[in-house]
Amino acid sequence: MNRPVEALINLANIRSNFALANKLSGEASVMAVIKANAYGHGALAVARALPESDAFGVACLAEAIELREAGIAKPIVLLGGVFDSTEWRDVEHFGLQVVIHAQEQLESFLAYRPDQAERQFVIWLKLDSGMHRLGFSPSAFARARDLLIDSGKIQELVLMSHFACADEYQSAMTDSQLALFKKASGGGGDPLSIANSAALITCPDSHFDWVRPGIMLYGANPLTEQVIVDVPLLPAMTLRSRLIDVRDILAGDSVGYGGQWSAPGAARIGTVAIGYGDGYPRHAVNGTPVLVGDKRAALAGRVSMDYISVDLSDLPEARVGDEVVLWGEGLPVEEVAAMSGTIAYELLTGVRSRVNFRYLEE
Q1: Does pTM top 0.90 for this prediction?
Q2: Which of 105, 316, 329, 362 is the most exposed place for a label (fewest CB within 10 A)?
Q3: Does the active-site annotation cover 35?
Q4: In this structure, which topology does domain 11-218 adopt according to CATH?
Protein backbone atom coordinates (compact mmCIF):
# COMPACT_ATOMS: atom_id res chain seq x y z
CA MET A 1 0.00 0.00 0.00
CA ASN A 2 1.28 3.48 -0.86
CA ARG A 3 2.13 6.06 1.77
CA PRO A 4 -0.90 8.28 2.40
CA VAL A 5 0.69 11.40 0.92
CA GLU A 6 -1.42 12.97 -1.79
CA ALA A 7 -1.38 16.14 -3.88
CA LEU A 8 -4.97 16.83 -4.82
CA ILE A 9 -5.07 19.06 -7.92
CA ASN A 10 -8.33 20.92 -8.45
CA LEU A 11 -8.51 21.64 -12.17
CA ALA A 12 -11.77 23.56 -11.75
CA ASN A 13 -9.92 26.01 -9.49
CA ILE A 14 -7.19 26.41 -12.12
CA ARG A 15 -9.87 27.18 -14.70
CA SER A 16 -11.42 29.71 -12.31
CA ASN A 17 -8.07 31.41 -11.77
CA PHE A 18 -7.48 31.49 -15.53
CA ALA A 19 -10.92 33.06 -16.04
CA LEU A 20 -9.95 35.79 -13.58
CA ALA A 21 -6.66 36.38 -15.43
CA ASN A 22 -8.54 36.53 -18.71
CA LYS A 23 -10.98 39.06 -17.26
CA LEU A 24 -8.20 41.23 -15.88
CA SER A 25 -6.33 41.11 -19.20
CA GLY A 26 -8.95 43.14 -21.02
CA GLU A 27 -8.31 42.83 -24.76
CA ALA A 28 -4.87 41.27 -24.35
CA SER A 29 -4.16 37.68 -25.34
CA VAL A 30 -3.34 35.33 -22.45
CA MET A 31 -0.35 32.98 -22.30
CA ALA A 32 -0.77 30.44 -19.50
CA VAL A 33 2.69 29.78 -18.09
CA ILE A 34 3.03 26.05 -17.40
CA LYS A 35 6.80 25.72 -17.10
CA ALA A 36 8.33 23.49 -14.40
CA ASN A 37 5.53 20.94 -14.85
CA ALA A 38 2.93 23.70 -14.41
CA TYR A 39 4.55 24.85 -11.17
CA GLY A 40 4.36 21.29 -9.88
CA HIS A 41 0.71 20.70 -10.84
CA GLY A 42 1.22 18.63 -14.01
CA ALA A 43 1.79 20.46 -17.28
CA LEU A 44 -0.21 18.13 -19.51
CA ALA A 45 -3.23 18.04 -17.19
CA VAL A 46 -3.20 21.82 -16.86
CA ALA A 47 -2.81 22.37 -20.61
CA ARG A 48 -5.77 20.10 -21.27
CA ALA A 49 -7.79 21.96 -18.64
CA LEU A 50 -7.18 25.35 -20.30
CA PRO A 51 -8.33 25.14 -23.92
CA GLU A 52 -9.22 28.84 -23.77
CA SER A 53 -5.57 29.85 -23.34
CA ASP A 54 -4.14 31.66 -26.36
CA ALA A 55 -0.72 30.07 -25.82
CA PHE A 56 1.32 28.12 -23.30
CA GLY A 57 4.67 29.21 -21.91
CA VAL A 58 7.35 26.66 -21.05
CA ALA A 59 11.00 26.93 -20.06
CA CYS A 60 12.68 24.69 -22.59
CA LEU A 61 12.38 22.41 -25.59
CA ALA A 62 11.85 19.20 -23.59
CA GLU A 63 8.80 20.69 -21.86
CA ALA A 64 7.36 21.77 -25.21
CA ILE A 65 7.94 18.43 -26.94
CA GLU A 66 6.18 16.59 -24.10
CA LEU A 67 3.07 18.71 -24.72
CA ARG A 68 3.21 18.42 -28.52
CA GLU A 69 3.63 14.64 -28.43
CA ALA A 70 0.62 14.41 -26.11
CA GLY A 71 -1.50 16.26 -28.66
CA ILE A 72 -1.42 19.85 -27.39
CA ALA A 73 -1.81 21.95 -30.54
CA LYS A 74 -1.95 25.46 -29.08
CA PRO A 75 0.98 27.84 -29.62
CA ILE A 76 3.83 27.00 -27.26
CA VAL A 77 6.50 29.59 -26.42
CA LEU A 78 9.99 28.60 -25.27
CA LEU A 79 10.49 31.30 -22.64
CA GLY A 80 14.14 30.38 -22.18
CA GLY A 81 14.76 30.21 -25.90
CA VAL A 82 17.08 27.62 -27.38
CA PHE A 83 20.12 26.45 -25.46
CA ASP A 84 21.93 25.06 -28.50
CA SER A 85 21.79 25.90 -32.20
CA THR A 86 20.76 22.32 -33.00
CA GLU A 87 17.43 22.92 -31.27
CA TRP A 88 16.13 25.12 -34.10
CA ARG A 89 15.32 22.01 -36.13
CA ASP A 90 12.99 20.75 -33.38
CA VAL A 91 11.54 24.25 -33.08
CA GLU A 92 10.65 24.05 -36.75
CA HIS A 93 9.42 20.45 -36.62
CA PHE A 94 7.14 20.99 -33.62
CA GLY A 95 5.95 24.44 -34.68
CA LEU A 96 7.17 26.29 -31.59
CA GLN A 97 7.56 29.98 -30.83
CA VAL A 98 10.85 31.10 -29.30
CA VAL A 99 12.15 33.88 -27.08
CA ILE A 100 15.49 35.31 -28.21
CA HIS A 101 17.24 37.06 -25.33
CA ALA A 102 20.94 36.84 -26.20
CA GLN A 103 23.26 37.60 -29.09
CA GLU A 104 24.27 33.93 -29.48
CA GLN A 105 20.62 32.91 -29.89
CA LEU A 106 20.06 35.66 -32.42
CA GLU A 107 23.09 34.61 -34.47
CA SER A 108 22.09 30.94 -34.41
CA PHE A 109 18.58 31.83 -35.61
CA LEU A 110 19.87 34.03 -38.42
CA ALA A 111 22.24 31.25 -39.50
CA TYR A 112 19.61 28.50 -39.39
CA ARG A 113 18.39 27.18 -42.72
CA PRO A 114 14.88 25.76 -42.32
CA ASP A 115 14.01 22.38 -43.81
CA GLN A 116 11.15 24.16 -45.51
CA ALA A 117 12.75 27.00 -47.41
CA GLU A 118 9.81 29.36 -46.95
CA ARG A 119 9.30 28.52 -43.27
CA GLN A 120 8.67 31.53 -41.04
CA PHE A 121 8.79 31.77 -37.26
CA VAL A 122 7.12 33.62 -34.42
CA ILE A 123 9.92 35.15 -32.38
CA TRP A 124 9.65 36.91 -29.02
CA LEU A 125 12.50 39.41 -28.68
CA LYS A 126 13.43 40.20 -25.08
CA LEU A 127 14.57 43.58 -23.78
CA ASP A 128 16.56 43.92 -20.57
CA SER A 129 14.53 46.76 -19.09
CA GLY A 130 16.33 46.73 -15.74
CA MET A 131 16.25 43.25 -14.24
CA HIS A 132 19.69 42.52 -15.74
CA ARG A 133 19.18 38.80 -15.97
CA LEU A 134 18.30 38.11 -19.62
CA GLY A 135 17.58 40.30 -22.61
CA PHE A 136 19.21 42.84 -24.91
CA SER A 137 20.23 46.34 -23.91
CA PRO A 138 18.06 49.01 -25.56
CA SER A 139 20.58 49.70 -28.33
CA ALA A 140 21.23 46.00 -29.00
CA PHE A 141 17.48 45.39 -28.86
CA ALA A 142 16.91 47.87 -31.68
CA ARG A 143 19.64 46.25 -33.81
CA ALA A 144 18.31 42.76 -33.14
CA ARG A 145 14.82 43.88 -34.09
CA ASP A 146 16.04 45.20 -37.43
CA LEU A 147 18.06 42.04 -38.14
CA LEU A 148 15.10 39.79 -37.43
CA ILE A 149 12.77 41.81 -39.64
CA ASP A 150 15.34 41.85 -42.44
CA SER A 151 15.95 38.08 -42.18
CA GLY A 152 12.79 37.22 -44.11
CA LYS A 153 12.10 34.40 -41.64
CA ILE A 154 9.70 36.24 -39.33
CA GLN A 155 5.98 35.53 -39.38
CA GLU A 156 5.45 37.70 -36.32
CA LEU A 157 7.74 39.51 -33.90
CA VAL A 158 6.56 40.00 -30.31
CA LEU A 159 8.55 42.42 -28.16
CA MET A 160 8.80 41.48 -24.49
CA SER A 161 10.48 42.18 -21.19
CA HIS A 162 10.19 40.96 -17.60
CA PHE A 163 9.49 42.87 -14.38
CA ALA A 164 11.86 42.51 -11.43
CA CYS A 165 9.62 43.92 -8.68
CA ALA A 166 6.03 43.64 -9.89
CA ASP A 167 5.16 41.78 -6.69
CA GLU A 168 5.89 45.00 -4.77
CA TYR A 169 2.84 47.20 -5.19
CA GLN A 170 3.57 50.59 -6.79
CA SER A 171 7.28 49.83 -7.10
CA ALA A 172 9.43 52.59 -8.59
CA MET A 173 11.42 49.85 -10.35
CA THR A 174 8.28 48.67 -12.14
CA ASP A 175 7.52 52.21 -13.29
CA SER A 176 11.08 52.62 -14.57
CA GLN A 177 11.03 49.32 -16.44
CA LEU A 178 7.65 50.04 -17.99
CA ALA A 179 8.80 53.46 -19.23
CA LEU A 180 11.96 51.98 -20.75
CA PHE A 181 10.02 49.15 -22.40
CA LYS A 182 7.57 51.60 -23.97
CA LYS A 183 10.42 53.74 -25.28
CA ALA A 184 12.49 50.85 -26.64
CA SER A 185 9.57 49.09 -28.33
CA GLY A 186 7.91 52.14 -29.84
CA GLY A 187 7.15 52.23 -33.55
CA GLY A 188 6.58 49.35 -35.91
CA GLY A 189 3.32 48.15 -34.42
CA ASP A 190 4.75 44.85 -33.12
CA PRO A 191 2.73 43.22 -30.31
CA LEU A 192 4.10 43.83 -26.81
CA SER A 193 4.27 41.72 -23.63
CA ILE A 194 5.62 42.44 -20.16
CA ALA A 195 2.85 41.69 -17.61
CA ASN A 196 3.26 38.68 -15.32
CA SER A 197 0.75 37.59 -12.65
CA ALA A 198 1.48 40.46 -10.29
CA ALA A 199 1.39 43.13 -13.00
CA LEU A 200 -1.80 41.63 -14.39
CA ILE A 201 -3.44 42.34 -11.05
CA THR A 202 -1.91 45.68 -10.11
CA CYS A 203 -0.60 47.37 -13.28
CA PRO A 204 -3.19 47.59 -16.08
CA ASP A 205 -0.96 49.99 -18.04
CA SER A 206 1.39 47.05 -18.64
CA HIS A 207 -1.10 44.63 -20.22
CA PHE A 208 -0.47 45.64 -23.85
CA ASP A 209 -1.09 42.78 -26.33
CA TRP A 210 -0.04 39.70 -24.34
CA VAL A 211 -0.12 38.91 -20.61
CA ARG A 212 1.73 35.98 -19.05
CA PRO A 213 0.04 34.73 -15.85
CA GLY A 214 1.90 32.00 -14.00
CA ILE A 215 1.68 31.57 -10.23
CA MET A 216 -1.82 33.08 -10.00
CA LEU A 217 -3.20 30.24 -12.13
CA TYR A 218 -2.35 27.90 -9.28
CA GLY A 219 -4.06 30.00 -6.64
CA ALA A 220 -1.00 31.52 -4.95
CA ASN A 221 -0.91 35.24 -4.33
CA PRO A 222 1.76 36.81 -6.59
CA LEU A 223 2.05 39.89 -4.38
CA THR A 224 4.35 40.31 -1.40
CA GLU A 225 1.54 41.75 0.73
CA GLN A 226 -1.81 39.99 0.61
CA VAL A 227 -3.65 43.00 1.99
CA ILE A 228 -2.89 45.18 -1.02
CA VAL A 229 -5.34 43.72 -3.50
CA ASP A 230 -8.10 41.26 -2.71
CA VAL A 231 -8.36 38.86 -5.65
CA PRO A 232 -10.46 35.69 -5.46
CA LEU A 233 -7.76 33.16 -6.29
CA LEU A 234 -8.53 29.53 -5.46
CA PRO A 235 -5.79 27.10 -4.34
CA ALA A 236 -5.17 24.45 -6.98
CA MET A 237 -3.03 22.04 -4.93
CA THR A 238 -3.93 20.59 -1.56
CA LEU A 239 -1.04 18.59 -0.14
CA ARG A 240 -2.30 16.18 2.47
CA SER A 241 -1.39 13.08 4.43
CA ARG A 242 -2.56 11.30 7.59
CA LEU A 243 -1.64 10.85 11.22
CA ILE A 244 0.12 7.51 11.59
CA ASP A 245 0.89 7.74 15.32
CA VAL A 246 -0.39 9.63 18.37
CA ARG A 247 1.32 9.50 21.77
CA ASP A 248 1.46 11.32 25.08
CA ILE A 249 4.75 12.74 26.36
CA LEU A 250 5.84 14.40 29.58
CA ALA A 251 6.92 17.96 30.26
CA GLY A 252 10.52 18.38 29.10
CA ASP A 253 10.45 15.45 26.69
CA SER A 254 11.97 16.32 23.33
CA VAL A 255 10.67 15.44 19.87
CA GLY A 256 12.53 14.62 16.65
CA TYR A 257 16.13 14.81 15.53
CA GLY A 258 18.39 16.91 17.72
CA GLY A 259 15.75 17.31 20.40
CA GLN A 260 15.01 20.72 18.95
CA TRP A 261 11.52 20.94 20.46
CA SER A 262 10.73 20.16 24.09
CA ALA A 263 7.27 19.91 25.59
CA PRO A 264 6.52 22.85 27.91
CA GLY A 265 4.10 20.59 29.75
CA ALA A 266 2.41 17.26 29.29
CA ALA A 267 1.73 17.08 25.56
CA ARG A 268 0.12 14.96 22.87
CA ILE A 269 2.26 14.44 19.78
CA GLY A 270 1.14 13.20 16.38
CA THR A 271 3.36 11.84 13.62
CA VAL A 272 2.37 12.66 10.04
CA ALA A 273 3.57 10.63 7.04
CA ILE A 274 5.26 13.43 5.12
CA GLY A 275 8.75 14.86 5.04
CA TYR A 276 11.34 16.59 2.92
CA GLY A 277 11.53 13.44 0.79
CA ASP A 278 8.03 14.36 -0.37
CA GLY A 279 8.77 18.04 -0.82
CA TYR A 280 7.66 19.37 2.56
CA PRO A 281 10.17 22.10 3.45
CA ARG A 282 12.92 20.90 5.77
CA HIS A 283 13.42 24.42 7.12
CA ALA A 284 9.84 24.83 8.34
CA VAL A 285 10.15 26.12 11.90
CA ASN A 286 8.41 25.01 15.07
CA GLY A 287 4.88 26.39 15.03
CA THR A 288 4.38 26.05 11.26
CA PRO A 289 0.66 25.29 10.93
CA VAL A 290 -1.01 22.18 9.59
CA LEU A 291 -4.70 21.30 9.58
CA VAL A 292 -5.85 18.18 11.40
CA GLY A 293 -9.44 17.81 10.31
CA ASP A 294 -10.33 21.46 10.00
CA LYS A 295 -8.38 22.60 13.08
CA ARG A 296 -4.89 23.97 13.31
CA ALA A 297 -1.98 22.18 14.91
CA ALA A 298 1.66 23.24 14.99
CA LEU A 299 4.86 21.61 13.78
CA ALA A 300 6.95 20.31 16.71
CA GLY A 301 10.57 19.45 16.00
CA ARG A 302 12.64 19.08 12.88
CA VAL A 303 11.23 17.90 9.58
CA SER A 304 12.73 14.53 8.67
CA MET A 305 12.81 12.75 5.31
CA ASP A 306 9.58 10.81 5.80
CA TYR A 307 7.80 12.31 8.80
CA ILE A 308 6.89 15.43 10.73
CA SER A 309 5.63 15.71 14.29
CA VAL A 310 2.81 18.04 15.33
CA ASP A 311 1.56 19.18 18.71
CA LEU A 312 -1.98 17.82 19.23
CA SER A 313 -2.31 18.97 22.85
CA ASP A 314 -5.27 21.19 21.96
CA LEU A 315 -6.89 18.50 19.79
CA PRO A 316 -7.82 15.64 22.14
CA GLU A 317 -10.18 14.24 19.49
CA ALA A 318 -7.36 13.63 16.96
CA ARG A 319 -6.81 9.98 16.10
CA VAL A 320 -4.50 7.83 13.98
CA GLY A 321 -5.79 7.92 10.41
CA ASP A 322 -7.06 11.49 10.57
CA GLU A 323 -6.36 13.61 7.49
CA VAL A 324 -3.69 16.31 7.75
CA VAL A 325 -3.50 19.20 5.27
CA LEU A 326 -0.03 20.65 4.82
CA TRP A 327 -1.16 23.43 2.48
CA GLY A 328 -4.05 24.16 0.13
CA GLU A 329 -7.74 24.30 1.01
CA GLY A 330 -7.97 26.14 4.33
CA LEU A 331 -4.23 26.73 4.69
CA PRO A 332 -2.53 29.07 2.17
CA VAL A 333 0.75 27.81 0.78
CA GLU A 334 2.14 31.33 1.21
CA GLU A 335 1.76 31.01 4.99
CA VAL A 336 3.72 27.76 5.09
CA ALA A 337 6.36 29.24 2.80
CA ALA A 338 6.79 32.27 5.04
CA MET A 339 7.34 29.99 8.05
CA SER A 340 9.95 28.11 6.03
CA GLY A 341 11.97 31.08 4.82
CA THR A 342 10.98 30.58 1.19
CA ILE A 343 8.26 31.36 -1.34
CA ALA A 344 5.18 29.53 -2.58
CA TYR A 345 6.81 28.90 -5.97
CA GLU A 346 9.48 26.69 -4.37
CA LEU A 347 7.02 24.66 -2.32
CA LEU A 348 4.66 24.00 -5.22
CA THR A 349 7.38 23.06 -7.69
CA GLY A 350 9.20 20.99 -5.07
CA VAL A 351 6.58 18.27 -4.52
CA ARG A 352 8.37 15.00 -5.23
CA SER A 353 7.53 12.10 -7.51
CA ARG A 354 6.69 9.69 -4.69
CA VAL A 355 3.65 11.80 -3.81
CA ASN A 356 0.43 10.46 -5.28
CA PHE A 357 -1.23 13.00 -7.60
CA ARG A 358 -5.00 12.98 -8.00
CA TYR A 359 -6.89 15.33 -10.30
CA LEU A 360 -10.36 16.70 -9.65
CA GLU A 361 -12.39 18.10 -12.53
CA GLU A 362 -15.06 19.72 -10.37
Answers
A1: yes
A2: 362
A3: yes
A4: TIM Barrel (3.20.20)
- Digit-coded pLDDT (tens) for 93-126: 999 999 999 999 999 999 999 988 889 999 999 9
Question: Helices (DSSP H) in the chain: which residue ranges?
Answer: 11-24, 35-40, 43-49, 61-69, 87-94, 103-111, 138-150, 172-185, 197-202, 333-339, 344-349
For the chain, the domains span: 11-218, 237-360
Q: DSSP state, 206?
A: G
DSSP string across 295-350: EEEEE-S---SS-EEEE-TT-TT--TT-EEEEEBTTB-HHHHHHHTTS-HHHHHHT
Segment 303-324, tens digit of pLDDT: 999 999 999 999 999 999 999 9
112 included as an active-site residue: no
Architecture field, domain 237-360: Beta Barrel (2.40)
* Identified catalytic residue from 35, 276, 307, 345: 35
Task: Give the 3-state secondary structure percentages of the chain, helix then strand then coil, rounded to 5.
Answer: 30, 25, 45
**Angle 331-287-8 (CA atoms, 0-180°, nearest 5)?**
30
278/261 Cα distance (integer angstroms): 22
Candidates 183, 218, 257, 280; catalytic one: 257
